[in-house]
Amino acid sequence: SSTAHKTDAGDLVVGGIPVADLVAEHNTPAYVLDEDDFRSRARAFRDAFSDFDVYYAGKAFLSTAVARWIDEEGLLLDVCSAGELTVALRAGLDPRRIGYHGNNKSVPELRRAVAAGVGRIIVDSFTEVERLASITADTGLTARTMVRVTAGVEAHTHEFIATAHEDQKFGFSIASGDALEAVRRLHAAPGVELLGLHSHIGSQIFDTAGFEIAARRVLALHAQVRDELGLALPEMDLGGGFGIAYTTQDDPSTPALLAEGMRRIVDTECRSLGVDRPRLSIEPGRAIVGPAMCTVYTVGTVKQVTLDAGAVRTYISVDGGMSDNIRTALYDADYSCTLAGRRSEAPPVLARVVGKHCEAGDIVVRDEFLPADLAPGDLLAVPGTGAYCRSMSSNYNHALRPPVIAVKDGAARVIVRRETEEDLLATDLG
Ligand code: LLP
Q1: What 8-state DSSP symbol labels residue 200?
Q2: What is the pLDDT of residue 153?
């Protein structure tokens, strides 16, 4: 992250604090969140997309403190579950600044979102249209909605993360006509206000052509809605998914370039379709929080394993693993890592950083060159773990989830505490 650096003595310093000092006080494993870096990424999106609404996608990482930072920086918040909505409301966010997603929102969840006055409910199925119609009829309240549509784009990313090709669970297909039908039904439902179309094509995307094709298809539907239903939808959300650099091979775009590209496409298409440009919004998650956090581990054991070809691989076991970062095991994601608490002159050896779970796939960093003298007690930092690590963490093997420590200007604050064994036992009723 931008304020992280190493001293001559090899100490990794984040937010003005040596990681070793944080560890002395808070132990490992721990997520360290650089508040200035987080805020400056949020601001960079808000500034580059000044004529858009920018929703931070809380699924990447959400806590009460982070929801407040987002609000202070002028962003809105995308939540995708009742739990995330609870955190957002607890943080004191204006409900009108919250977008609520999900492919299977229950009646009680929708009831609560409508009652809270959530700004946008992103409707994902015909069942949900009926649920909202009956909730608004019962309560006399209004539901403000958008329609999640599927643009049929194959974003070039891991199959499990791509969401806008046809064969998947989210949204209404444009190609099949379901999207237009959903617009028709929402428009007809009393008490339901339809504000626009919503598209999200996937995550960790570098090739902006995917966004452009999706924007064109969604705008074409937007124009069709005007022509066939006489309805000028005031808004359109183009989703998130902007990739970040996990390794030196990754070459992410900048918020300014992304904004420019989207504006160009939208303006050109609107002109050629003869429709007014709707108010646009986006929903970046990873690109804001991903680079702002690192995970710090303590090395527990170092083992040399001889491979079939006779080569040796060094396995470095740390005190966390797939319970705090499932992404390597689940998506074959690439991370790097660095020695954090001292300097080493030892030659680099190719190492694999693994966790302490009972599973061979419990890999944190598949391949990294680390000093040959790495030993138990050394600290390792894995950068870029802000997105979808803590938020996808688990208690596998009854692991205790690590804390999130926010650092800024040489001061540290625990914004999510470490779980305790009491937390684990609290739900186990014996
Ligand atoms: N908006 C919607 C409707 C989404 O579904 C998502 C992510 C986002 C915004 C934010 O996408 P981002 O800017 O963070 O890429 N667990 C996977 C990623 C799943 C993304 C789910 N939806 C991973 O660890 O890579």
Answers
A1: -
A2: 84
The answer to whether the beta carbons of residues 71 and 98 sit under 8 Å apart is no
- Beta-strand ranges (E) seen in 169-248 are 172-173, 192-198, 235-237
Determine whether the shortest distance from the Cβ of 240 to ligand 1 is under 6 A. yes
CA–CA gap between residue 171 and residue 145 (Å, rounded): 13
For the chain, residues with pLDDT lower than 50 are 1
Asked whether 355 lines ligand 1 (CB < 6 A), one says: no
Tell which one of 158, 250, 286, 335 to mutate to probe ligand 1, the residue whose CB is within 8 A of the most ligand atoms.
Answer: 286
Pairing of strands 293-306, 143-150: unpaired
Please work out whether the CB of residue 148 comes within 6 Å of at least one atom of ligand 1: no
pLDDT for the residue numbered 164: 64
Whether ipTM exceeds 0.90: yes
Q: Which domains does the chain have, with CATH numbers?
A: 5-32+292-426 (2.40.37.10), 101-284 (3.20.20.10)
Q: Give this prediction's pTM.
A: 0.97
Nearest CA to ligand 1 atom 3: 200
* Ligand 1 atom closest to Cα of residue 198: 3
On the question of a cis peptide bond just before residue 29, with omega within 30 degrees of 0, the verdict is: yes
Q: How far is the CA of 316 from the centre of ligand 1 (A)?
A: 30
Contact between 362 and 285 (Cβ < 8 Å):
no
95 is in an annotated binding site: no
What does the block give as tokens for 44? 């960079």
| pLDDT computed for residue 209 by the predictor | 86
The reply to whether ligand 1 has any atom less than 6 angstroms from the CB of 283 is yes
Q: Cβ(404)–Cβ(389) under 8 Å?
A: no
Distance of CA 257 to the CA centre of its chain: 20
Residue 283 among known ligand-binding residues: yes
Catalytic residue among 294, 337, 358, 389: 358
- Token pair of 155, please? 């974003």
Q: 64-72 vs 82-90: helix axis angle to the nearest 10?
A: 60
Residue 358 annotated as catalytic? yes
Q: What pLDDT, in 10s, does the model give residues 171-218? A: 999 999 999 999 999 999 999 999 999 999 999 999 888 898 999 999
Going by alpha carbons, the residue nearest to atom 16 of ligand 1 is: 388
The pLDDT of residue 208 is 86
Residues 6+ apart with CB under 8 A from 221: 149, 174, 179, 180, 183, 197
Q: Give the residue among 95, 146, 88 at the shortest CA–CA distance from 122.
A: 146
Tokens of 308: 């079939």
